[in-house]
Write a structure and sequence with these properties.
By secondary structure, the chain is an alpha+beta fold. The chain is built from 5 helices and 17 strands. It folds into 2 domains: 120 residues, Sandwich (Immunoglobulin-like), CATH 2.60.40.10; 130 residues, Immunoglobulin-like (Sandwich). It has a 6-stranded mixed sheet with strand order 1-9-8-3-4-5, with helices on one face. Strand 15 and strand 16 form a beta hairpin. The relative contact order is 0.13. It binds 2-acetamido-2-deoxy-beta-D-glucopyranose (3 copies).
């Protein structure tokens, strides 16, 4: 009886509440995550009610008049715990737990404190691998320069971004480097006459993790200037590299969706146009 009454009371009271800005909480898939409610000083909590608001509203847990927690049949059932300090623990967190939570606290004089949490759950990224593809000899290419593509892929990680650093760690821009496929593929041109270190680093990042890997391309370039070992046409690169990267990443739902969206087709079409010098 109690919790039902409480729910009715709270629903009618919601518009009058002073809601705080949502607190962003980051969770890692498979690990516990805490939604820590901040009890104001001198606020003697009598009842606490946790709800999940998106995509559909669900009651997660209630503590009524200091009684033991009631945990409801929500998507968090069996994975959630309402602690005695009214914080909610979800263990283990899952990707689909991302969303908005609301905690309502009622004190002994009937005052209400509302706190909103925005939980974001991510899968940690794994160490990426880089594949090198040399470019087929190009009549416009100056001798002594080396052109190639680097394709970076991490098999795990959600909502990732890719970035590259060149020899000496500088960020890459300008005529000799260009990023394709949201940064996952780097097209680079090296001057072989300059005897310098030529290692490239790919970093895969999301909100909870970052992993890097470096590759030395000097040897690849020496080979390219002699016998052409792995020479590919630019169009082939996009036909091979992009599906390969997508295949490696197919575990990540989002990227899978992207690969299916036919985005790589648009690149193949674009590849028929002259490449900017
Ligand atoms: C409440 O209790 C949990 C579990 O013991 C703990 O992790 C958390 O730090 C405590 N404090 C707050 C403010 O939630
Ligand atoms: C992660 O990516 C998915 C799919 O694109 C998106 O729905 C979600 O909002 C993203 N999460 C964050 C925190 O950006
Ligand atoms: C690009 O490479 C050429 C040699 O291949 C070099 O002369 C030029 O300075 C490089 N440009 C930039 C912006 O690094």
């Amino acid at each position: 009886m109690g919790p039902i009454l409480l729910t009715l009371v709270l629903h009618s009271a919601i518009p009058a509440l002073l809601a705080h800005a949502p607190l962003r909480v980051l969770g890692i898939e498979g690990q516990p995550v805490f939604l820590k409610v901040n009890v104001p000083p001198d606020f003697l909590v009598r009842d606490a009610l946790w709800r999940f608001l998106t995509p559909a509203e669900e009651l997660v847990a209630i503590s009524f008049k200091g009684t033991a927690q009631n945990v409801y049949q929500s998507r968090f059932y069996g994975r959630s715990r309402l602690h005695t300090n009214f914080s909610l623990e979800i263990s283990p967190a899952a990707l689909g737990d991302s969303g908005i939570f609301s905690a309502l606290l009622v004190n002994t004089t009937g005052e209400i404190e509302k706190q909103i949490f925005h939980l974001e759950v991510y899968d940690v990224v794994s160490t990426p691998t880089i594949h090198v593809f040399g470019e087929e000899s190009n009549p416009n290419r100056k001798s002594g320069s080396c052109e190639f593509f680097l394709a970076c892929a991490a098999s795990r990680g959600t909502n990732v971004t890719y970035s590259w650093a060149g020899p000496g760690g500088e960020t890459l821009a300008g005529e000799n480097h260009s990023a394709l496929e949201n940064g996952q593929v780097l097209r680079a041109k090296l001057d072989l006459s300059e005897k310098m270190a030529s290692n490239y680093t790919c970093t895969v990042t999301n909100a909870v993790s970052a992993k890097s890997v470096s590759i030395e391309v000097q040897e690849q370039c020496q080979r390219q200037s002699g016998v052409k070992v792995t020479a590919y046409d630019y169009r082939d690169i996009l036909l091979i590299v992009v599906p390969l990267a997508c295949f490696l990443l197919s575990a990540a739902v989002i990227l899978h969706a992207k690969c299916r969206s036919g985005k790589q087709i648009s690149y193949v079409v674009a590849a028929n146009e002259p490449f900017p010098a």
